[in-house]
Design goal:
This is Acetylxylan esterase. The structure is a single chain. This protein is 34% helix and 19% strand. It has eleven helices and nine strands. It has helices spanning 8-13, 24-36, 104-107, 156-172, 189-203, 221-227, 233-242, 247-255, 259-262, 283-292, 315-330, and strands at 43-47, 54-62, 68-76, 83-89, 111-115, 177-187, 210-214, 270-275, 301-306. Helix 5 links the parallel strand 6 (177-187) and strand 7 (210-214).
């Protein structure tokens, strides 16, 4: 696939005038308050990860509706005190997988939390996974992207975004983690969850040391769904091809979950990455979130651009960039 989106100079200037719901702040403040009615209920149990230099714990905490969310907590072997912490979110269809997979940042000396994504994990399996126990509402296309999409209160990503935000609160409750030095990061859907978690953190006065969304999903829905019809945005396209009378209703729901809107609340330094040949998360949609990040209040921001890469973006090159960036901010 050749480069198909805007030129780089236009990408840097692209700030779409997206419709912002008048009750957006109240909706998310109310959602967080409702989640906080349940104790965070953090539990950890050491597991055998088959590794000598990293200790891994099966972490459980209360997400949306008080439902138990699974995660891995990995730390350098023998760690007893609080460490600077990386909270990682996973791409669409994936989950936390096996405990020996989620250790990169523990190997670098940090506490590393990898959140399982409710109702997913089907692309990589792994240990005990997190179901999505809450009913999703109306009919939906295959996948999670249209589940409950007729109302923001029933939409799947309301639950997933709250789970991601509560992962930060769970980290703050762990003796292995230093809540004053915490970075959120992830790629694709994990990038979208990173933006949502960082935005909700900013809305609620929680200062992160950084947030790093790679090739982020869940941004600028109006452009994404009309520029490409590849999956997973194609799930919305297929849904609306059948439910022709629900276009306005669906895009109103999506406006509550758009990373190019929620990221405006973020206050953390940020590092984005974009692949200019990415048909899964088109470059302009990623730049929409990047350019609106912090609503012009965050100066410590940069984007890594990979001109000849699709959705993999920078791959291991970007992971090396991230390791350096995390070290600069966490030590």
């Amino acid at each position: 696939m050749a480069q198909f989106d805007m030129s780089v100079d236009k990408l840097h200037a692209y700030r779409p005038d997206l419709p912002v719901p008048e009750d957006l702040t109240a909706f998310w403040q109310g959602s967080v308050a409702e989640a906080r009615e349940h104790d965070i209920a953090v539990r950890t149990e050491r597991v055998d990860n088959r590794l000598r230099l990293v200790d891994t714990y099966d972490l459980t905490y209360a997400g949306w509706g008080g439902e138990p969310i699974k995660a891995w907590l990995s730390v350098p072997a023998g760690t007893v005190g609080p460490l600077p912490t990386v909270v990682q979110y996973i791409g669409y269809s994936g989950g936390r997988g096996f405990p020996f997979n989620a250790t990169l940042y523990a190997q670098a000396g940090y506490a590393h939390i990898t959140m399982d994504t409710r109702g997913q994990s089907y692309s990589n399996g792994g240990w005990d996974v997190t179901p999505d126990a809450t009913p999703g509402g109306d009919n939906h296309a295959p996948g999670q992207l249209t589940r409950g999409i007729t109302d923001p209160h029933t939409y799947y990503f309301r639950r997933a975004y709250i789970d991601a935000f509560r992962a930060l609160e769970a980290a703050a409750a762990l003796e292995q983690c230093d809540a004053s030095r915490m970075i959120a990061l992830g790629g694709s859907q994990g990038g979208g969850l990173t933006i949502a978690a960082a935005g909700l953190a900013g809305l609620h006065g929680i200062q992160l040391a950084g947030a790093a969304p790679d090739v982020p999903f869940l941004c600028d829905f109006p452009r994404a769904t009309t520029l490409v019809n590849s999956l997973p945005y194609g799930e919305i396209v297929r849904y609306l091809a059948g439910f022709r009378d629900r276009v306005d209703q669906v895009f109103r729901t999506l406006s509550y979950f758009d990373g190019a809107i929620l990221g405006r609340w973020a206050s953390a330094p940020t590092l984005f990455s974009v692949g200019l040949m990415d048909q899964t998360c088109p470059p302009s949609t990623c730049f929409a979130a990047y350019n609106w990040w912090g609503n012009d209040t965050v100066s410590d921001k940069r984007v890594e651009i990979y001109p000849f890469n699709e959705h993999i973006g920078g791959g291991d090159h970007q992971r090396q960039v991230l390791l350096d960036w995390v070290r600069e901010r966490l030590g």
